[in-house]
Amino acid sequence: MKLLLKYPLPLDEMPYTAEVILETGAKINIDLATRGELIVDVPGDDVEHVAELFREKGVEVRRLMKLIAWDEKRCIHCGACISVCPTKVFTFDPSWNINLEEEKCIRCEICVKACPLSALACIE
Amino acid sequence: MTEKSIEDINERIEDGSVRVVTADRMSEIVSELGAEEAAKEVDVVTTGTFGPMCSSGVFLNFGHADPPIKMQRVLLNDVEAYAGIAAVDAYLGAAQLSEDKELNYGGGYVIEDLVAGKPIEMKATGYVTDCYPRKDLETTITLEDLNQAIMVNPRNAYQRYAAAANSTDRTLYTYMGTLLPNYRNVNYSGAGALSPLYNDPDFETIGVGTRIFLCGARGYVVGRGTQHDPANRFGTLMVTGDLKAMDPGFLRGATFYGYGVTLFVGIGIPIPILNERMAKKTAIRDADIVTEVIDYGVSRRERPVLKKVTYEELKSGMIELEGKEVPTSPLSSFFMANKVAAELKREIEHDKFFLSPQVERLPTDTVAKPMKQPELPLVKDVMIRDVKTIGDSASIAEAAKLIMESQSTHIPVLSSDGKLAGMITAWDISTAVAKRHEELAEIMTKKVITASLDEPLELVIRKMERSNISALPVIDDARRVIGMVSSDEISKLIGKRKKWQWKLRI
Q: Which listed residue (B131, B371, B434, B506) is catalytic?
């Protein structure tokens, strides 16, 4: 499960993520980090606990259910999104239809630009 | 020996007994039955492609206004159509950009919107004559309101296409899509074994007048396309069809980020299996079609060929390039190409889509020539050859002295083997003094942007603009500094010539 973490501003440079990892022992993967914002991948069993701890520390936590908006009607299944994606979110099925594995998405947005049909967007 | 005529096949279409297969099935059938038997069993092979084809557009006739106008300039949803023909005729090209939305809208989108029945804002201006007294007009039109809307695409259905990769260290946005730095991906186009022209590479059946499937309508081959280069298996077709009969599902306006607008066009061509020879040709497989991977990192017409690959390799999703496994992406849609071939098959079987004999054969030996142009100024025409350099073990004080004495603001720094190690500028020296650095190596720019002797100056200017620098070293293959080129020399040469006519915001 992916969580979007928003650190309180102004940033106080506290190592909240490290604290949460140490306190829970959860194997947290950092997918994307910008100043004050983090997307982390947390194993399903630990999500509740991890989210609660972050919240206690004043970090805003949002569960990312949907990462990419895919306009299937607009999509022509060309595949321009496939080779640019660093985490292989997009694949072809045997009949050359695009398949999405959203849970792999790290919101780098490269595919959004690469799609000639503007059929992909990142959801805020 | 089987010999059929187009008339024989059309009789079978008429009585419903025609046997049609899509091109992807044909190799299997021929390897199972043999070409002789396959030619008896199969009457028509349908091909299909659905790809971005910039060289597309529509002729439009709007009918006369009252009072009448001779349009000199016409905008459709803010996209200009060429009006240098009769009073109310215009040609709208797929790649024409919107005046205000630039890369986000253009001719391809207007064509799609027309076919979808959407209203289009039209603005026209003209000059006043006795027969055309009106100066301008504004109105809203739909496809229905037009007398004619005739698609005429000067270059479609490229037989094959080169694949693209990028050797540079920055992402390139091209008509071959997004190319990641350092060969991290490969993009390719073309329909492979479904490609219309690869199933009839010698133009035995496809020719002037061939009836085709064009974006859901029945269209025709006008003749050879522009840049038709059959000698190198880069044949092309000029095609036409009635926009009013087209299906919005089989054409689509699109934008290649940072490059421009285009139109995805769906084309299907039936290949009559007149004999064993045509059965063999249509049995072509992806593994038989070879194309080249080209380095788009080189901004020249002749880009280096990195390797040869087959469509089978490209379609596998990964190819080996420069010692690495690299993911591939098609830019044309195989899903839609299959759909085109399947729809054409259905129309031949059930909808009386008759085949037409070619009126004339297309040339099979022409090649595409490069543009005739005046010689471009090259780096070697303007570079300074007498360059002061400094070793990387020199002190900052020595560098400062050299800058002062040589009156040049940019000094290449050489390593002990004489190769370029970095650049030092007057600005770097000031920084060093302010921050109390001692070593030259600490403050020099190590990632140096360089030029080569035979590089066109236009490209060097682009590098300077992009990196916001005013001078760069010219190096040879061994990274030895052989000159410097600076914006001063360039402006002397170019004078008042306008540098860039089109500045696109990326």
A: B131
* Shared domain check, A108 and A54: no
Domain span at residue A29 reads: 2-64
Q: Are residues A57 and A11 in the same domain?
A: yes
List the beta bridge partners of residue B263. B253
Do A7 and A60 reside in the same domain of the chain?
yes
Q: Which residues from A are below 8 Å from B256, CB to CB?
A: 116
- As for the ipTM of the complex, it is 0.83
A-chain residues within 8 Å CB-CB of B326? 83
Taking only the tens place, the pLDDT of each residue in B202-251 is 999 999 999 999 999 999 999 999 999 999 989 999 999 999 999 999 99
Selected residue with higher pLDDT from A83 and A11: A83
- The token duo for A93 is 């099925």
Distances (CA, A) of B342 to B7, B18, B77, B321, B348: 23, 15, 34, 34, 10
* Tokens 């595919």 found at: A111
Query: Could you give the CA distance from residue B197 to residue B48 in angstroms, rounded to a whole number?
Result: 10
Does A113 sit within 8 Å of B333, measured CB to CB? no
Residues of B whose CB is below 8 A from A113: 173, 178, 257-258
Q: What is the pLDDT of residues B413-463, one digit of tens each?
A: 999 999 999 999 988 888 888 888 878 888 899 989 999 998 888 888 888
Give the chain A residue whose CA is nearest to the CA of B172. Answer: A114
Across-strand partners of B412? B423
- Tokens (6 digits) for B66: 């009252």
A97 shares a domain with A43: no
What's residue B186's pLDDT?
Answer: 98
Which of A71, A83, A115 to mutate to probe the B interface, most B CBs <10 Å?
A83
pTM of the model: 0.82
CATH superfamily of B379-494: CBS-domain (3.10.580.10)
Query: Residue ranges per domain, chain B?
Result: 6-53+152-361, 63-146, 379-494
Residues A7 and A57 placed together within one structural domain of the fold: yes
Q: Do B333 and A97 touch (CB under 8 A)?
A: no
